[in-house]
Amino acid sequence: MSPTHRTNTDRQQHRRDFFGSMRDGLLGVGLTTLLGSDLPRVVAADHRPASDLTPRPPHFGGQAKSVIQFFMTGGPSQVDLFDPKPALAKHEGELPQGFIDNVESVGSAGGLLPSPFRFARHGHSGLPVSDILPHLATCVDDISVVRSMWTTSFNHETGVMMMHSGRPIKASPSLGAWVTYGLGSENRNLPAYVALDDPLHKPILLGKQNWQSGFLPPIFQGTRLRSIGSPLVNLQPRQPLPPAILDFTRGLANRMAHEHQLRRPGRPELAARIASYELAARMQLTATDAMDLSQETAATHRQYGLDQKVTESYGRRCLLARRLVERGVRNVQIYMNTANGDNPWDHHGDVQGNLSRSCLQTDQPVAALIKDLKQRSLLDSTLLVWGGEFGPCRWPEGGKPGRDHGANGFSVWMAGGGSRAARFMEQPTNSAITPWKTVSVFTISTPRCSTALAWTIAAWFSTTTVSTSGSAASSRPAWSERS
Amino acid sequence: MRWPNTVDHGLCPMNCVHHPESPRPGIFGRALAVAALLLPSLAVAQAKPPMPATFESHVLPIFTAHCAECHGPQDPSGSLHLLTRDDVVRGGQSGPAIRAGNSRLSLLVRQLEQGKMPPEGPALKPGQLATIRRWIQSGGRRDGENAETARRRIAALSISEQKVFTNVFFTNCLDCHGKWRKEGGLDLRTRAGLLKGGKSGPGIVPGDPESSLVYRKILANKMPPPKNLFGDQTYVTRVRLQDRNELRDWIAAGALPSRKTRPQKDPVLNKKRLDHWAFRPPRRPCVPKVKHGDLLNNPIDAFLLARLEPKQLRFSPAADPIVLLRRASLMLTGLPPGPHETSTLLDGQKPHSFEAFLDRLLASPHYAEHQATWWLDGAGYADTHGQINRDELKPFMWRYRDYVIRAFREDKPYDRFLTEQLAGDELFAWKDGERLTAEQLQSLIATGFLRTASDATDEGSFNKVLNRFGVINEQIDIITSSVMGMTLECARCHSHKFDPVPQEDYYRFAAIFRPALDPYDWRIPNVVLHPPKYPVPNKYSRDLFQTSDRPNAVIQLHNEQLETRARKLAAQISDRARQLKDKDLNTDKLTASLRADIKTLRSRKIQSLRIHGLADTGGVPTPVYVFRRGEIHQPGGEVTPGPPVALSTDLEPYRVVAPKFGKTSGRRLALARWLTQPDHPLTARVIVNRIWQQHFGRGLVNTPGNFGRIGAKPTHPRLLDWLSTEFVQNGWSIRRLHKQIMMSSAWQQSSRTRELHNTDPDNRLLSRFPFRRLAAEAIRDSILAISGGLDRRLLGPPTERLVEPTGEVRHPAGPQGHRRSIYLVRRRKTPNTMLNLFDAPAMSPNCLQRTDSTVPTQALELFNSDFVRNAAVRFSRRLLSTGRNGPRLLVTAYRLAFGRNPTSAELRRDRIAINELTRRWETELQGDDSPETAEQRALQNYCLILLNSPELVYVD
Q1: What ipTM was reported for this prediction?
Q2: Interface residue A235 vs chain B (CB under 8 A)
Q3: How far apart are CA A402 and CA A411, in angstroms?
Q4: Which residue, B54, B194, B797, B930, has most beta carbons within 10 Å?
Q5: For B52-87, how does the pLDDT look when each residue is reduced to its tens digit (9 = 90+)?
Q6: Is B140 left (phi over 0), alpha (psi -120 to 50) or beta?
Q7: C-beta atoms of B855 and A171 within 8 A
Q8: Full-model pTM
């Protein structure tokens, strides 16, 4: 036997070992990271691996492991949902000078518009919730409402950028990208960061930018999963191959890749590529499985409102969010459908009709998710954040009974993940005519979550901590806190 | 995507690099700020009214003891002098140090509280800090000064003339009272103009705001008027409350002109920082002597070998000629070699010389297309404006892309190439609408380089001064990173933390572009202001308009397509009219929406040929001020245009000579002339490094956008200098540089490694050729070239994209096949799915170093997508059409896909595999009247496997 021949035999042997390990479904090489690591760079450069999704423990002990973010594009009206302002009725139609000085453009402002909805106090905390959120009203003791948010712009785009990244510029990493960057992922077979938007991908405001990784490596960007049909682009081919053919094709491709690799020793990127093909094959099963709602009971379907047309679409995404979080997905962002490209929570002309409709579509699913997570003991490890990019003004636009954009104050709520529940900040009742920017400091009850979450939540809420008016502390109204 | 730079930063917090707009501390700082704000606020709330303190008696002793060393009268650090009250109030580079009456918002107190100051030596005692707070809280008085005098004096000191002008007049008034119009005879650009006033009398009465006409108009909301120039009332900005108050206080304090400040030498311009290799001109080094002279093909090898030999290393053996053909073809043209190019070698005949092959490649138009790809990466090229969902198309941006391709095709000298792109409009007498020669036209189109920043200022709500500065900043970032290898962006908010770049440098550099990009005299990047309610004259557009005596085919096609769609809708209206019979169409909702659609379609028609270039707007531009901490509302001293001072030694100075012709200022032309001096320390080095990076995956400096002190050190500094000087001597010819690199032994060595490389593990010394993945475009183009679906036509308008319901973005094929990736429309919001997956960069703002990710979605794309499956079918048909079968068919397949012959083992394996596939398909197809036979199906599957092979996406 010539030496060359012997080498070949050795290689055959080696290859057989390799295929043996493949049969066990194990690809030892390069699989320490989820969804592929940036291996060539890791190897070639002397940096620490910048793009690594290995799960990492937080620097400080914390409860939250995942975040679900209900993003309510358009600016849900706080004075019609969580923050009753009885004084609005008293001053109906007036437009105090204090407001004018604090807005950039009064445009076609009319006078103050009282809320068309009725508020009632709920739960142990006595949180007032308006009558268009009947389901959420049953979970008030699990949520904490923050009424002192404000932002820098009353434009939707800028506001949405601020709420997703804390900055009004387009190249900033989103909240979820930071979470994933800080904590890595706990599921090797699913994306770490998922965005659930309209299943038909009707455009939402700013689109992909909402889950971008910005200047962080692209591996931390969100993956948009569709809630109906195939969850990922090209997860399945348009015309699937018969299983017998598919198996053989994959096998041959694999064999060629391995032989290619064997001829080029010391190339970890080739191992990573082989692993990525394996992972892709597994994802066809796991992603499909995670998105398969038929595994849920009929009762669960009913709970999330999947049996009703109005709540079906949003309910499906809420239920999916739970299934993803259960599987270790780190960050899920849920967006509402947009009927005609409008922002669903923007109620210029008709606050009564539009707001009721948006609440009807989302209230039951959101409440169901809170209860479901709680029942499965997942609420403590999952932080829920509900809110939009700003809240509307307290006056109508023109003569119509709607509300124009306003950046000077709005409400969000959070639940689970160690945030202290059943808590809200109450304002003095005359604050309907207090210029809002003086309301600036609020404490979130030290969310006991990881460092990464603390950063991101700090970024998320950063707009509330610095006052532009320069009189943050001195003119701070006397907050009274109820719990 | 310049992430690696950011990682290297380490010391510079990311938020500082990436969002200097905001005066607030970054994410980390914010978290701290929550705590910091809470604690003292409680203390303040409970405290009694503070005891008054005065400067000389209480505060000065503290400053003298702790701060005077750095903030004394001689060359104070940060230009902050702390030994007189007035200087404290005036502040330094970061703005006023105190805010009288509010210690918590006083910068000085924040620095002390956070322990940032004093930087060395003992911290202030709590009692001393309390005294300073008390002094500020009680009004910042001097000894013996009464409260009212102090208030007025401080108000006058803290409000500068330029602040009032920037925030009140420049931002809100110049459209009607500036360069172009002087409504009521009033010119609000200067203090003199304001004092002189207009028809109704002087603008202000110093000392008496209530009698000052301008202030009263603003106070009464009469000015700015409720509608802007276009009759739009939605987006009229109003003077902010605080700006209005500052105008009042400034007038009240006597409307004093700004104090002329003595220019001070910034401490960052110190010897340690200036003494950096990249800021000194390259000197041509001697070619080193080496032991293995037989390995040398040209001097490049000597420089590399001189580093390898001391480590007992050499180059790897020369690569197989067939490997070299594929490598050269992919590196230079982004396409695999065609069968006719490889056949001589593969058929075992005597090969042609490699040099002749290189010359053929370098003369190929595909070379120019591939080169344009990386230049456009650096330039941040996209066909749309980005930023917002509308993602407005720049319908003629492709003309700049074509300019770049043409330039590479004719090997335009790099100095000329750069000059045209920076100042093409300043090279000849040019006026709107005049007929141009072809060369003039090209140099105007070249200024498209200055129009690549994302820009949504054609949307009313995004046309604020802050947004305009955003566009300018992004453009400056693109220019400085891609051409100069400098991170000038850092200096927008503060003097550079590592490089000898004072903050003024950023603004001096920005001033070069001010005559063309003036945020206070803005041109929108489009011809329509959105929402398109009002006609906007062309002169408000930044686009340049070109008259043409022939109708342009592109415009015609574009307009015809729109018109066809509009006619279809019109037909629907007539149908509707028939349906509704007697009813009034005007009240019908459907008709109304159809009519609106027709109107929108017709409004999108293009009337004239445009150039997305840049030209000076004419007249005197607004003055450029340093913005303290990068905030556009905090102007400091005025600057004159110029390049970074650290680079000025040993060079011809930057000198502006306004050309005699036209309305141009000559500032950009001066920049181009300054940059293209043969001795320039950065220009040649940066471009040579970028070309080296193309060949070896990493540059000689591995941070191509940062040659500064925290950029990567060059692995072979002498080689870099030798190449740079050689490049300039060879007439800045990029083509010759490529050939020189590719003729070296280093380039022609094998990429195979046998032993573990303990001495050169990451191949920095180039002991082997780097094994690399292809770029996204080359992968897509290769698949097309192999499968025979590539439309090889050159230049022209881009292929429009299609968004599938699944969210997939495709660029469909034309009648002659798919065009090369460079000709696909680059829409920022909807990038081609396949290119995006393989790391084609998102232009935010540009990309100097691509990443190579390996993710399963790439596998899904290559294995499942219609694009690749169709290519596999096409490939199989191409193979069958050769009339070959059996082993000869397999040989053809391997030659097309990998540019080599299969080994006998591969032949055997693949023949067995195809037979097995055919057998399985026969079982599957039983009883199925499929038009395709089992053999055809099997071959299609086999071709799909070949297209998924790693050999296709990696270069040996």
Answers
A1: 0.81
A2: yes
A3: 18
A4: B194
A5: 789 999 999 999 988 888 888 887 887 788 998 988
A6: left
A7: no
A8: 0.78
